[in-house]
Design a protein that fits this description.
This protein is of the alpha+beta class. The protein has three domains: 44 residues, no CATH class; 246 residues, no CATH class; 76 residues, no CATH class. Strands 4-5-6-7 form a four-stranded antiparallel beta sheet, with no helix packed on it. A three-stranded antiparallel beta sheet has the order 3-2-8. A hairpin with a 2-residue loop joins strand 4 and strand 5. The radius of gyration is 34 Å and the shape is extended.
Length: 497
């Protein structure tokens, strides 16, 4: 009731009552049930705010709880592990496309060396693949991760990466470095909300002795996170929608486990019909019936094979809640299905339970999961692309490769490349092979497509096939092979129908 209604009610209670009645009638005629303020939605409170206002006050709490479940929840780690295995998995193979085969080979050779931990990581503790797997994990749990480009000696080229957690963004920095900009969440933005710099906290390795934060230009920072709203400027844990449900499952299983352990304990309680006479004078301080001290039950627990005396007149009342053990399986399955659905994954992927699957359902689940992983792969490849471009530039500056016109108009051509993902295992090799054969014969796939799916470069695969067939021919062995749809003839099968 607003101030106007209160004034009308003071002058004319009847008029105020009629206003309230008409207002409720109008609310009942709303076009959307979700906008109704009736009894069913009375506790549904929501407000319109920017993404940063919505996330700011819950970001740290959500991240801390997500990390707690990362340490203690098997279901949480099942979800995280599925993303880590499928988004990056066995890694990506670089295929340089600089336009010259010799130059491509040099770049790929140096990239393989740079990816070792002593060359790519400023701490010298993680290889490039390990850093990317950690990035996928931290994005799921923390919401994002920062990579700083560091230019220093001691490696193959004067370029390395420094991985930082999002906690290290300094929230106390509020003064922009450049006039007209603004600082929010430790990041400086221009008037178009484009990041121009990051304020990074500085402290000793034990987390103590904090000093003034350091400003890092945006060109030297890679911020890997998912942006879900135009007004969002910082990360939010990807696991937020399913965290409460995962915790509910953990608490439920803990309660069921405690009950089952109690039921598994074989124990005996001896109830005394009459007080036993004790030795010495009755009524001693601290003694009970017959001079014997009463048994105290506080803090007692059931243990297998336990024999416990009870005080005279005491009885054991057993609390035996029914249903948890028998319903646990169905409850767990339903909850895991909802957790998987909230993360865009199938039940089988999260639970690792294939008892109710067949080839068709498993294949369909895999297809849908792949579409989910593809979004994260696309984001991760953007991070890897930026790292690769900085690596090639460092190669040129260090004189490892000779490209005279690199800084001219052909720079983008020399930075051209592609990534070949490590292959996935087949569910049914025969069906998959027949499907690939049909797709190849009908033009739905090319040799390049199939080679990429197997984690290989198609040119190298053709060269390997030709080398193997030639070697088999020299030994009089038919190694098979197909060229232009015809079986390759060797000395071993020449003249045969």
């Amino acid at each position: 009731m607003n101030w106007l209604d209160q004034m009308i009610g003071f002058v004319s209670p009847k008029a105020e009552y009629e206003r309230e009645a008409y207002r409720r009638a109008l609310e009942e005629q709303r076009s959307y049930d979700a906008a109704d303020h009736g009894r069913l939605n009375v506790n549904w409170r929501a407000s319109i705010e920017s993404a940063e206002m919505t996330d700011r006050y819950g970001r740290d709490i959500v991240r801390a709880r997500a990390r707690d479940m990362e340490r203690n929840s098997d279901i949480m780690n099942s979800v995280i592990g599925a993303y880590k295995r499928n988004v990056f998995g066995g890694g990506y193979r670089l295929r340089a496309s600089a336009g010259q085969e010799k130059l491509n080979g040099q770049i790929e050779h140096y990239w393989k060396i740079w990816c070792k931990k002593q060359n790519c990581d400023v701490t010298g503790t993680q290889s490039f693949n390990a850093m990317m797997r950690m990035a996928v994990r931290r994005k799921k749990v923390d919401g994002g991760i920062l990579f700083l480009k560091r230019y220093s000696g001691g490696g193959l080229v004067p370029f390395k990466l420094q991985a930082l957690e999002v906690d290290e963004l300094d929230l106390t920095s509020v003064s922009p470095r450049h006039q007209g900009n603004k600082v929010a969440g430790g990041i400086e933005y221009d008037p178009c909300n484009k990041p121009v710099g990051y304020w990074i906290r500085q402290y000793s390795i034990d987390g103590m002795d904090a000093v003034d934060p350091v400003y890092i230009p945006a060109k030297d920072v890679i911020f890997y996170y998912t942006k879900n709203r135009p007004s969002q400027i910082r990360e939010m844990s990807d696991l937020t929608p399913t965290m409460t449900r995962i915790r509910d499952v953990n608490e439920f299983m803990r309660a069921v486990g405690v009950k089952e352990r109690i039921l598994a304990c074989l124990s005996a309680f001896i109830k005394r019909a009459l007080p036993q006479a004790g030795v010495g004078r009755p009524g001693t301080v601290g003694s009970g019936h017959g001079g014997q001290a009463d048994e105290r039950y506080q803090g007692k627990t059931l243990t297998p094979g336990m024999i416990q005396y009870l005080n005279p007149g005491d009885e054991v009342q057993v609390v035996n809640p029914s249903g948890q053990a028998t319903d646990a399986t169905s409850y767990m399955k339903q909850e895991i299905r909802l957790i998987g659905a909230g993360q865009g994954l199938s039940y089988e992927t999260v639970s690792r339970d294939m008892s109710e699957s067949n080839y068709s359902s498993a294949r369909q689940g895999t297809i849908e999961d792949e579409l989910t992983y593809e979004e994260d792969r696309e984001q991760l490849l953007e991070v890897m692309d930026e790292i690769y471009e900085s690596f090639v530039i460092s190669l040129v500056l260090a004189g490892k490769v000779d490209i005279p016109d690199f800084w001219g108009e052909g720079k983008e051509r020399y930075l051209s490349h592609s990534w070949i993902h490590a292959p996935k295992r087949w569910i049914d090799p025969v069906k998959e092979a027949n499907a690939n054969k049909t797709a190849l014969n009908t033009g739905q796939k090319t040799w390049a497509d199939m080679a990429a799916e197997n984690g290989k470069d198609w040119k190298e695969q053709v060269d390997e096939m030709a080398e193997i067939m030639e070697y088999g021919k020299s030994k009089g062995i038919d190694m098979g092979g197909v060229i232009f749809g015809k079986t390759v003839k060797t000395d071993a099968n020449e003249g045969q129908p």
